[in-house]
Amino acid sequence: MKLIDEEGRRLDGRRFDELRKIKIEAGVLHRAEGSCYLEWGGNKVVAAVYGPREAVPRHTQDPVKAVVNARYNMAAFSVDDRKKPGPDRRSREISKVTSEALERVIITDLFPRASIDVNIEILDAEAGTRCAGLTAAAVALADAGIPMRDIPVACAAGKIGAEVVDGEVKGGYVVLDLGKDEDNYGNADLPIAIAPRTDEILLLQMDGHLTYEEFEQALDLAMKGCHIVSKLQREALLNKYRPDLEENL
Amino acid sequence: MKKMVLPGDELSTSEELLPGDGTYEEDGIIRAARIGLFHVDKKTRTAIVEPVTTVPTILKKGDDVIARVDSVRSSMVTATLLHVIGKERPISGETNATIHVSEISTKYINDPIEVFSLGDIVRAKVIQVKPSIQLSTKGNHFGVIKALCSRCRYPLKKKGSMLECSRCGNKENRKVADDYGKIDITIL
After folding, report:
1. Which pLDDT score, from 0 to 100, does residue B187 have?
2. Closest approach of chain B CAs to the CA of A143, in angstroms?
3. Which residue, A134, A167, A223, B25, has fewest beta-carbon neighbours within 10 Å?
4. Given this model, what pLDDT does residue B48 score?
């Protein structure tokens, strides 16, 4: 399968450094303390935040700070073949790395013995759901008024279009934000999450192989992508609360 | 003029202002910790971010709370905090509280079992948060707001100075709040 042509156009017509279409809306759920709906290409994600509230069972409490519990869950209908509901190895891993990424920016020492629960529901999946989920969770946390040092954001870069000739990998392009086919038939995927103000890396995973130079290139590209998405997050939050603001003035 | 800020936005420096509500300090710079309107309290020279979202409930001394009695001992009553009156969001953190026998009423109480029973819902004032949460039910407005009969678990009705069970006729004594039986527990 040819994922990228000679002119650098990808399957869906994007350039190497273009993101898919992203739509973010803050505060969509009634009963959650904070929430966010996000569409990223074909991904559809809802994130909801509950707490800080007393952590149960009590042995999970930390007497000096709050614990962040993110729960990434894919809906049964989110993929082509029905996904068996419930946590599996993949979603447990994503829940863990997302929790740890969010914990780095939340000012947890204000809420000893509490838990902050973040539910990330993937309604529709099309590659890059962990980035979409984390990005949505960040907006939901801000919407819940939870003190944070920054609004974290995630984005992926990867490598597509390499050929294997006599056991040697030839060619290939480093591109931003892999689509479904690019993810499945591409060569590498590098999702990262950052705190955009400081460029601190909160999450970095890699699937596939990249040379050292390609890795640096992909990391740079993903950072750039993160900064673009970060602007969209801020817009979404301002859009939600600017009307409130005008009422107050 | 008040400016809309988002978490991480630079507000001021620590030479100029003190970090107040909704802000944090990092490397000598005061930044916003939540979405809201930035303004300066001129009197205390404090940077404040007035929230536009709801904010987590942090228990403070002087808050009025609703609690459920978990156990009654000879010198104190332990209770679980359910809700802070006037707040929508759940209590963040510790919810185990105690009411010392001396803080139950302005009158002399020999043993708390005379005025509280397991499962009672009480309105109380927070008189200490750290190192442990202490409540007081002194005052007319504080005390039991809902109680069940200890014999048959039927809701007790106020009758004179006592509470009476309308099913089994059992009479019990409580330190009741002035509006016992007049409030809808479900809307709290």
Report:
1. 59
2. 6
3. A167
4. 95
Residue of A nearest to B21 (CA): A147
What domain range includes position B9? Answer: 3-51
Provide the pLDDT confidence category of residue B185 given band limits of 50, 70 and 90: low
> Same domain for B95 and B130?
yes
CA atoms of B135 and B152, how far apart (whole Å): 28
Q: What is the pTM of this model?
A: 0.92
- A170's CB contacts (< 8 A; 6+ apart) are A162, A163, A164
A243 vs A157: CA distance, rounded Å: 36
A22-247: CATH homologous superfamily?
A: GHMP Kinase, N-terminal domain (3.30.230.70)
Beta carbons of B33 and A147 less than 8 Å apart: yes
Chain B nearest-CA residue for A151: B7
For residues B134 and B82, membership in a common domain is answered with yes
To test the contact with chain B by mutation, choose from A24, A143, A146, A242 the residue with the greatest count of B C-beta atoms within 10 A, namely A146
The 8-class DSSP code of residue B72 comes to E
Calculate the alpha carbon distances from A25 to A28, A130, A238, A240 in Å.
7, 18, 10, 8
Range A135-144 average pLDDT: 97
Q: Are B77 and B136 contained in the same domain? A: yes
Q: Residue B188 above 80 pLDDT?
A: no
A112 contacts on B by Cβ (under 8 Å) = 93-94
The answer to whether residue B53 neighbours chain A at the CB level (below 8 Å) is yes
Amino acid of residue A226 = C
CATH of the domain at B41: 2.40.50.100
Residues B141 and B68 in one domain: yes
